[in-house]
Design goal:
It contains 5 helices and 21 strands. With 306 residues, the protein is α+β, with helices and mostly antiparallel strands. The chain folds into 3 domains: 86 residues, Thrombin, subunit H (Beta Barrel), CATH 2.40.10.10; 95 residues, Beta Barrel (Thrombin, subunit H), CATH 2.40.10.10; 94 residues, Pdz3 Domain (Roll). The strands form 4 sheets. A 6-stranded antiparallel beta barrel has the order 1-2-3-6-5-4. Strands 8-9-10-13-12-11 form a 6-stranded antiparallel beta barrel. The termini are far apart.
Length: 306
């Protein structure tokens, strides 16, 4: 019977060999001063993924890879509300990492963090997924939003790890390390369908367009008979409708309880915000409401958030 430690070490070293060539140390300079962090190559044509706060205010900088090669990079697009940014290096031959799916992670699963903490290039630490579904507040100077489904890990993260890779045991990047929340507590933005959509928009247009419907509300528990009938415990009570907004034009009123939108359960504001990305702009969005004990269907056409 093999030693469990040897098996563990084998997994970590294999992941390190797979991911390290795709991780760069970044040096960015802006009007705010010099910044440093990490980035992950994820395409054959030179696109890198990093944390938005690593390159905040910068238009470019230098990337250094594990083999010692250096390349200039340009900031293609940045989205502070998801803390993600896409860069592009001006040289070919960088090995791309494979992006995975964080929605398949389980608590206790082995993960490996690769980055450049404290300026120490090519550092590797390992740990487990400590928790899933965490939220991380971000802002772009005007709006505050929560990044959903953030991954919590005990893999050691330090300043400079931001923008680096969090990989699973198969060497697939399932998160971008973003914050050190305390001793033994690191956070990573997940790679999932939502963030893939954000990354795609950053590549194609350099920014993330977000939709707007013009409602504010609070989560409330549904009456037990209705909760049992709908198999849904909570809804989202509307406490404000902006006059002339898409929600107002669709016939949503104060006191309505939003149950579903686009076929998805809506129980918190975050459930609604997840739907408010570029493709929703100008599209018909079916919404089911609870109004005075009756179910009501309306259709909202979200507009672009300015």
């Amino acid at each position: 019977m093999s030693d469990p430690l040897d098996a563990y070490s084998q997994v970590v070293t294999t992941v390190a060999r797979t991911v390290l060539p795709s991780v760069a140390a970044l040096a960015a300079r802006s009007s705010r001063g010099a910044g440093a962090g990490s980035a992950v190559s994820f395409t054959d044509d030179g696109f890198l993924l990093t944390s938005a706060h690593v390159v905040a205010g910068a238009s470019g900088g230098a990337a250094t890879f594990a083999d010692g090669s250096e390349a200039r990079f340009d900031v293609v697009g940045s989205d502070p509300l998801s803390d993600l940014a896409v860069l592009r290096v001006r040289s070919a031959g960088v090995r791309p990492a494979t992006l995975g799916d964080a929605d398949k992670l389980q608590v206790g699963q082995l993960v490996v963090a690769v980055g450049n903490p404290m300026g120490l290039a090519g550092s590797v630490t390992a740990g487990v997924v400590s928790a899933l579904g965490r939220s991380l507040p971000t802002n772009d100077g005007r709006r505050v939003r929560l990044i959903d489904d953030v991954i919590q890990t005990d893999a050691a993260l330090n300043p400079g790890n931001s923008g680096g890779a969090l990989a699973d045991s198969n060497g697939k990047v399932i998160g971008i390390n973003t914050a050190v929340a305390g001793f033994g507590l690191g956070l990573a933005v997940p790679i999932n369908s939502t963030t893939r959509q954000i990354i795609s928009e950053l590549i194609t247009s350099g920014r993330v367009r977000r939709a707007w419907v013009g409602v504010a509300g609070v989560p409330i528990p549904l009456p037990p008979p209705m909760a049992s009938k709908l198999k849904q415990r909570n809804g989202f009570r509307v406490v404000e409708v902006v006059p002339g907004s898409p929600a107002g034009q669709a016939g949503i009123y104060l006191g309505d309880v939003i149950l579903t939108a686009q076929g998805k359960l809506i129980q918190t504001v975050q459930d609604l915000l997840r739907l408010m990305l570029g493709p929703a702009i100008g599209s018909r969005m079916p919404v089911t409401l609870l109004r005075r004990g009756a179910l009501v269907d309306v259709v909202i056409t979200p507009t672009e958030l300015n």
